Amino acid sequence: MTTSDTRTEKAAESPDTARPDAASRAGWFGRIPGFGDPSARFVHGWAIAQLVVNVGIVVTGGAVRLTGSGLGCPTWPQCTDGSFVPHQALGMHGAIEFGNRMLTWVLVVVAIGTWLAVFRHRDSTRGDRWLATLIALGIPFQAVIGGISVLTDLNPWVVSLHFVLSMALVSAATVLVFRTSTRVRQRATNTVAARLGNALSWLIYLFTWATIYIGTVVTGSGPHAGDADAPRNGLDPGAMTQLHADFVFVLVGLALAVAVTTRVLRMPQTRAAFTYVALLALQGIIGGIQYATNLPMALVIAHMLGSGLLMIGATWLVLWFGRDQRAPADVTSGTVTPGADAARTEPVR
């Protein structure tokens, strides 16, 4: 038996009585479509956009490194001494690096839009507002770390930190997408299975982080430095690759365990678990081929995209299993026990 949960939906009202203060509340924002009195779907759309652009900047950042354009703009925040834009002498590398910097402003615009939508949505919680604020603040912090990486001539450890923060923003954006979704999500009523799934999902999340970070260490020891003169971390690429593979094997075992558990016990997280297994398998295939073919650019970029997708999948599993733990289902009565997100639940249908 399963139960369902969603954000509380208000009863339908007549046009004369629905939200009588909407016009006064909109104020100046009423001139901007959607922001006058944002709907749940409008907020969710902005949250999705924020997740997409945060994954996108990971891919474009990888393209900068793989084309050797990491120092295309040799200083920061200006591109060159005395100029914020590249000059002709910097060639293609300067254009690529400058273009990636300009994409940061796309993130800023989307982050501001998401922040406004969340804060103006009348059903947003304090947690939603804090999360939107932290993501927005993380973007300029990310730009600063990117600047430090340029000023340190692409020090591999700083570049690794740059990528790790990108993954943190992807994970946080995934949380906001999950929280703002109005989709009805079932809860597992088997408390033992829910606890097991929750424990496995956290292990998957932690090992996903560990695997991604070790992947950045592998990159720091390999050939794609971002510039011909950029330093390497001095570690043995073969040994680091083997360590990375060892963590992948552990992650595969955990992913299969949660997939089998959800399937056998017919838990509502089955599709999410199998989706993560599929993403992990695809990522492993890409990683194996790129290693065997001497790291071609297209496959490395695909591998970076896969890292972002895996982080989304791991975060999603933790959120869904965690919701079972925060508001466990009462198998006897078939209702949801009030918990941390009780304001967003509704009776069993």
TrEMBL record:
The keyword ATP-binding does not apply. Residues 1-19 have a biased composition (Basic and acidic residues). Pfam families: COX15-CtaA (PF02628). One of its GO terms (molecular function) is metal ion binding. The chain crosses the membrane at residues 102-119, 131-151, 157-178, 199-219, 239-261, 273-292, 298-321. Coiled coil: none annotated. Keywords: Cell membrane, Disulfide bond, Heme biosynthesis, Iron, Membrane, Metal-binding, Oxidoreductase, Transmembrane, Transmembrane helix. Its main location: membrane. One of its GO terms (cellular component) is membrane. It is a multi-pass membrane protein. Pathway: Porphyrin-containing compound metabolism. It comes from the Bacteria. It is found in: Membrane. GO terms for biological process: heme A biosynthetic process. Residues 1-23, 330-349 are annotated as: Disordered. This is Cytochrome oxidase assembly protein. The lineage of its organism: Bacteria, Bacillati, Actinomycetota, Actinomycetes, Mycobacteriales.
